[in-house]
Amino acid sequence: MAQNSTDPYINPKDDPNNPLKYIASNSLTAVALFIVLNTAFIHSFWCSRYRTKWMLPLVIGEYCYAIGFGIRFVMHYYPDSMGIYVAENFFIVLSPCAFIAANYVLLGRIAKFLVCDEYVPLPLNKITRVFVLSDISTFLIQASGGGLSTSKNASVAASGSHIFLAGLVLQLASFLVFFSIFLRFLYKIYTLRPDIWMQDQTRHWFWDWRTLAGSLTVSSIGILVRSGYRVAELSYGYHGFLATTEAYFYLLDTLPLVIANLVYIPCWPGRFIHDKPTQEAVESKSSPYSSTV
């Protein structure tokens, strides 16, 4: 029996029950899952090898992110399942909050290691706590908004979308503030503490603390690109062209986050940061180059 040419289920873009408005590509999902999962495995090894428990948020987030891509395989075969979509969206959209938290913690660790805490606007324990709490808050806002947006009640779903968007905007704003503080931190060391800035110049780049600073910069830019994409995507709505085009998802969401995490494979923070600050940093605290903010 021939199908009716007006059948809305023939084309995923017209399917009223398909939240993605496309059929998820198993090939792209497999590539993403392979990279994310192997990155998580390597980071797990580094975490154990260098005893960097403070980087566990990154590792846990990567495994949760991998679960999201695993669920995406199921979505290929059940594109009309709202339950599967909600689970996939939960892990894919919210896991990066853990990546953000890891970067927040890393700034404090670098400042403490270099004994340059005077170049951050708040005491290290407080500034880390403030940003991590902001990350948790925006996570909860996004999670609650995402839950409400799946409601069958149109007004509740609309409110959920607005709450979700607010969480994304606040997260982006918070990370922009963090990134500005980090860049200012590097600038202050470069201009006021050349002794600290150049302390590893005789070492291979593999052991130069500036390499780690560069990695944090690259990771932060990746997160900012992804966050900006998510804000723009939801601004157009769940059925907007950004949300319903798989290429944008991989180009502006997955790829930036993959790069943001991959950069820590050759530049694992635990290799650069030890339990005690560098002797050079301690001795130079009272050097002629030392200056206040």
UniProtKB/TrEMBL annotation:
Pfam families: RTA1. It comes from the Eukaryota. Keywords: Membrane, Transmembrane, Transmembrane helix. It is found in: Membrane. The chain crosses the membrane at residues 20-42, 54-78, 84-106, 127-143, 163-187, 207-227, 247-267. GO terms for cellular component: membrane. It is a multi-pass membrane protein. This is RTA1-domain-containing protein.
